[in-house]
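>> Question from a student workshop board

For tomorrow's exercise we were told to take the sequence and the ligand below, predict the bound structure, and bring the output to class. My setup keeps failing. Could a helper post the expected result so I can at least see what it should look like? The ligand is FE2/S2 (inorganic) cluster.
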Amino acid sequence: MPRLIFVESDGTRTEVDVPAGKSVMEAARDGNVSGIVADCGGALACATCHCYFTDDQAASLPAKSDTEEDMLEFANAEVRPGSRLSCQITVRDDMDGWEIEVPDSQ
Ligand code: FES
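>> Workshop helper replied:
Here is what the output should look like for this input. Compare the format with yours to find the bug.
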């Protein structure tokens, strides 16, 4: 089972073992990562599951949908090239060990 490591802005690191097929947002929620709010529960309607992926990680992810692009405009924190809405990212086995940065606000 892949293990994701969420790194919050205060340096808090939370490791979460998550089955492939769940979303990154669900992994954060299961791990009680406080910086991922996920108000809409994954309906792509809130942008409070925003997180930052590295360039290499982002390059391996499916492209953003137009709706995700639009919703990212409502993100509270700075939007970077590696910004994604984590409810839209499905966990894969090869993500094991990924460190995922959580913005300082949602
Ligand atoms: S949980 Fe609301 S957009 Fe991802």
